[in-house]
Amino acid sequence: MILLAEVTQMTRCSLVALVCTFGLTAPAWQAEYEVVSVKPANPELSQGGISHSARSTKGQWEARNLYLKDFIRSAYRINDNQIAGGPNWLGTAGWDVDAKYPAGATPAQYPQMMQAMLADRFHLKVHWETRTLPVYLLVIAKNGLKLKESSDPQSMSAGMRMIKYSAASMQELADQLAGYLGKQVLDRTELKGRYSIDLQFAQVDPGSPDASTETRPSIFQALQEQAGLRLDSGRGPVQVLVIDSAEKPSEN
Questions:
Q1: Which of 6, 133, 181, 198 is the most buried (most CB within 10 A)?
Q2: Average pLDDT over residues 48-77
Q3: Cα dist from 83 to 54, 79, 158, whole Å
């Protein structure tokens, strides 16, 4: 699995696709960065098209020119359409963050650390609401399911052009797809088993440099051709994070 902290020099759309793919459960105790610095980003980066990056190395995490909206998506594992309200600079003001993980920190604790940082440095206050929004409905395609049930120990990997599970439920696949598509995916297959899944598809971001020479099918085509599944448009209940207030942090 890939966290925002492990992604380097990707487009913002690509970052969104990856940071929303996890069902990690934060620990009950409050996890925080050992040290964290937040500064306004250099505005010239965006103008030069270099823009947004994040990476993690040897217990350190850094982000360059990411918006508060990016951090919220990563901290709460949600998509753009699950964020409501907030200040007018939510998706325009870039921030550089340098943080140090405490000894023994695990990836399962990273989201809570980011939530704590947002509350402390951006004075972020939020609450959850359930709203009816446009969604995708995951259903079995007309020609039938092409996946095989699996009892293997669960493992998974995901990248810009692939999703692979040794054994996954349809709900897990739906959650994964939501990260790529930027919209909630609701499982309507009525399949209860776990399946071996191996999807290969073109990068979802239409603005990627390889788009003009891409030969792989779209993620929608790959689902039908490789898995026997289909995504239909619909509406359904979605958990939305409402931003009550946020402030620009003082440089430190």
A1: 181
A2: 82
A3: 21, 7, 24
Give the tokens for residue 58: 């040897």
Q: What share of the chain is helix, strand, coil (3-state, %, to 5)?
A: 25, 35, 40
3-state secondary structure (DSSP) of residue 115: helix
CB–CB of 195/167 below 8 Å? yes
- pTM metric for this prediction: 0.70
State yes or no: pLDDT of 11 exceeds 50: no
Comparing CA positions, the residue from 34, 121, 28, 109 lying closest to residue 75 is 109
% of the chain with per-residue pLDDT over 70 = 81
Angstrom distance (rounded) from CA 249 to CA 252: 8
Q: Which residue has the tokens 């599944």?
A: 229
Phi and psi of 212, rounded to 5°?
Answer: -70, -20
**Torsions phi, psi for 105 (to 5 deg):** -65, 145
Q: How far is CA 140 from CA 55, 114, 217, in A?
A: 37, 37, 18
Rounded to an integer, what distance in angstroms lies between the CA atom of residue 9 and that of residue 54? Answer: 7
pLDDT given at position 80: 86
- State yes or no: pLDDT of 123 exceeds 70: yes
- Reply yes or no on whether the pLDDT at 10 is more than 90: no
Q: Indicate the length of the chain as a whole number.
A: 252
- How many other CB atoms are found less than 10 A from the CB of residue 105? 17
Q: What is the separation of C-alpha 64 from the centre of its chain, rounded to a whole number of angstroms?
A: 17
Letter string b/e over residues 173-208, b meaning 16 or more CB atoms within 10 A of that residue's CB: bbbbbbbbbbbbbbbbbebeebbebebebbbbbeeb
